[in-house]
């Protein structure tokens, strides 16, 4: 090609180059993509869901649509469980300020209930009695086991019901190394059932000589005989003696249900228990040490299926409620005024779960809660779930839900397990939060001989102290089962 022709081509390219550069996109930077708060350093586990109420998947929203508050910062979470090597029935659990975990081991007629203990964050468990024939003198034959740890004194309360007629309290002040003798706590009406015990500091309306740092209150169901409704009793000397049972509802108010959820005390001296009122799920409150009670219906729109209305309190004495409604789904609401008024209930199951049972709840720092339940979509392969809310006061709080077990490692295969007495679950399960903000939930693995298992987080949101990830611990699972 001649030099003149080459020069002409060069001039033509120079004239066209500005337009061509736009076609190749080199003069305009690509639009920036806002990073998602769910872009963790590792993939989200298939047993973890980040969602809002009513099965709304949080990952379906763009970052600018999420509108997450600082207290709702997503944290990579993974649930797990550890086997204990002991069986259980209606499992209850407690944790001391040093991190010692205690769990009920039910052995049936003639052997009674023992307390099992872990001092290495659930990895290994030992039977700490109380044992018959020793100074502690365990009472044999426990129909219902119950354990509770007083968060103000670390006293471990072992509370057993016998033959639906009498109850005995034993306690340990040294993390289960030794136990008191049994103290009777018999009641007025029989049969008695569904006992629950908790402690509380003196409330604003309490009157009397307090002989122990905290007040102990228990409530029981009176069954078909006697008045319908829970009866409650008060001890001012650490569980040695009791004042006598009184109605656990306001004078003149009709009761439609006798069974009730676990008792829980608040920092401000109020004691609560959950129980359906005649209008819907309700919280019952005492501010005078369990001698009188007021009724506070939570919702009339979402009626509770059964008696287990779970109540928890947080460090700011706010009240949190959790129950299974007649649509078989779990609902959550909170109150910032001692139960006088309640937030609009939220349906808090994750996408894919549409049948649930056995609700339980615990509060941590102000506005942080964990709720536990079993759930499934096919009514036959039940998993154990924990849901977390770290900003309960948000208009649309983010919920992090973890299953403690893998899908193929289900805990029960009874079709309607969530709505009937079911294996080691019995009538209820239990959840607590330790001083570091780690949740611990009591389940039974009914597929493996009703072995007591304890669920927790490998890591996830701390429910006390600054909001951040919990220090990771070793993952458990079926390899830890021993029965």
Give the tags.
33% strand; globular; Neuraminidase; 6-stranded antiparallel beta sheet; 483 residues; mainly beta
Care to describe what's here?
With 483 residues, the chain is mostly beta strands. It has one domain (45-480): Neuraminidase. Helices cover 5% and strands 33% of the residues. It is built from two helices and 30 strands. The chain has helices at residues 3-24, 63-66, and strands at residues 48-52, 56-57, 78-87, 93-95, 101-106, 113-118, 126-127, 147-149, 156-162, 166-172, 183-184, 193-200, 215-221, 230-235, 246-247, 264-265, 271-276, 281-286, 294-297, 310-313, 319-324, 330-335, 346-347, 355-363, 369-376, 383-389, 399-403, 430-433, 439-445, 451-459. The strands form seven sheets. It has a six-stranded antiparallel beta sheet, with no helix packed on it. The chain has a four-stranded antiparallel beta sheet with strand order 3-30-29-28, with no helix packed on it. Strand 18 (281-286) and strand 19 form a beta hairpin. The chain is globular and about 80 Å long. The N and C termini lie far apart (90 Å). Residues 1-25 have low confidence and may be disordered.
């Amino acid at each position: 090609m001649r030099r003149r022709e080459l020069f002409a081509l060069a001039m033509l390219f120079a004239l066209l180059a500005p337009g061509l550069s736009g076609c190749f996109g080199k003069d305009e930077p690509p639009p920036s993509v806002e990073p998602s708060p769910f872009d963790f350093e590792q993939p989200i586990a298939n047993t973890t869901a980040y969602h809002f109420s009513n099965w709304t998947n949080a990952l379906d929203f763009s970052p600018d649509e999420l509108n997450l508050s600082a207290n709702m910062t997503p944290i990579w979470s993974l649930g797990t469980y550890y086997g204990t090597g002991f069986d259980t029935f209606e499992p209850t659990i407690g944790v001391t300020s040093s991190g010692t975990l205690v769990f009920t081991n039910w052995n049936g007629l003639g052997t009674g209930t023992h307390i099992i203990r872990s001092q290495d964050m659930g990895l290994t468990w030992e039977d700490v009695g109380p044992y018959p024939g020793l100074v502690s003198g365990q009472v044999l034959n426990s129909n219902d086991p119950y354990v509770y740890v007083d968060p103000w004194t670390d006293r471990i309360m072992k509370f057993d019901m016998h033959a639906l007629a009498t109850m005995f309290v034993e306690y340990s002040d040294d993390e289960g190394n030794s136990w008191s003798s049994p103290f009777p706590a018999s009641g007025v009406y029989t049969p008695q059932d569904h006992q629950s015990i908790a402690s509380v500091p003196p409330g604003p309306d309490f009157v009397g000589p307090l002989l122990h740092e905290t007040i102990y209150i228990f409530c029981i169901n009176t069954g078909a005989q006697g008045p319908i409704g829970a009866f409650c009793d008060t001890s001012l000397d650490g569980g040695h003696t009791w004042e006598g049972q009184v109605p656990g509802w306001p004078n003149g108010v009709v009761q439609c249900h006798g069974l009730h959820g676990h008792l829980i005390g608040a920092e401000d001296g109020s004691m609560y228990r959950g129980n359906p009122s005649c209008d819907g799920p309700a919280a019952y409150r005492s501010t005078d040490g369990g001698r009188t009670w007021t009724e506070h219906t939570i919702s009339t729109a979402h009626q509770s299926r059964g008696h287990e209305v779970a109540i928890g309190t947080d460090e700011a004495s706010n009240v949190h409620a959790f129950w299974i409604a007649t649509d078989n789904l779990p609902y959550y609401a909170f109150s910032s005024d001692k139960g006088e008024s309640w937030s609009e209930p939220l349906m808090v199951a994750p996408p894919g779960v549409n049948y649930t049972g056995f609700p339980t709840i615990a509060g941590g720092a102000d506005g942080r809660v964990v709720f536990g339940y079993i759930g499934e979509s096919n009514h036959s392969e039940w998993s154990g779930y924990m849901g977390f809310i770290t900003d309960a006061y948000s208009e649309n709080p983010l919920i992090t839900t973890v299953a403690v077990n893998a899908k193929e490692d289900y805990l029960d295969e009874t079709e309607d397990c969530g709505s009937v007495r079911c294996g080691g679950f019995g009538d209820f399960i239990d959840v607590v939060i330790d001083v570091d903000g780690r949740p611990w939930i009591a389940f039974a693995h009914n597929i493996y001989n009703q072995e007591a298992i304890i669920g927790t987080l490998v890591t996830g949101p701390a429910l006390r102290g600054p909001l951040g990830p919990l220090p990771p611990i070793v993952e458990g699972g079926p390899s830890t089962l021993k029965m």
